[in-house]
Specification:
Layout lengths: L8 H6 L21 H14 L4 H13 L12 H9 L2 H5 L1 H24 L13 H15 L2
Helix pairs in contact: 2-3, 3-6, 4-6
């Protein structure tokens, strides 16, 4: 079935195991990220909400069974990483409906990313804007007038 050539979900989750714990702005520890099992649950839920093909949900269920051992893992795995992993699965490559369902989730992720980027400024002004000589001349005159009374 080609399982030996596919990465095991546990191996994917273990890739970031050596990362340091994240910290809040206060310096306190934050809740750990979402592990592979939880990400697969979210992906399955999103597929159901989108009315995905049954084969797509079966594929995610298969990976959920494999990731059962990672259920309580503290290793954080990004959802986009799990989606990319599922897109490379033989079942997704062999079945256009499955591939399209997963690609739709990927495009939703990309759309969210673009929406978040829209909030940021288009550029940061790094040019120097020195004050003109007339500003300093007027400032000097003002100081001299305050000294005279």
């Amino acid at each position: 079935m080609g399982d030996e050539s596919q990465y095991d979900v546990a191996r994917v989750a273990a890739a970031g195991a050596g990362l340091p714990a994240r910290r809040d702005a206060d310096g306190g520890r934050r809740e750990p990220g979402v592990n592979a099992y939880e990400q697969l649950l979210v992906i399955r839920d999103r597929l159901e909400q989108n009315g995905a093909n049954e084969a797509s949900i079966d594929l995610v269920d298969k990976y959920l069974d494999r990731a059962e051992s990672e259920r309580n893992s503290a290793t954080s795995v990004a959802q986009v990483m799990m989606l990319r992993h599922l897109l490379r699965a033989r079942e997704a490559l062999d079945n256009d409906a499955v591939y399209n369902d997963l690609q739709e989730l990927m495009s939703e992720h990309d759309a969210r990313k673009v929406a978040e980027d829209d909030v940021r400024p288009a550029y940061v002004d790094t040019e120097r804007h020195p004050r003109p000589r007339s500003y300093y001349k007027a400032l000097k005159e003002k100081e001299q007038q305050q000294k005279k009374p």
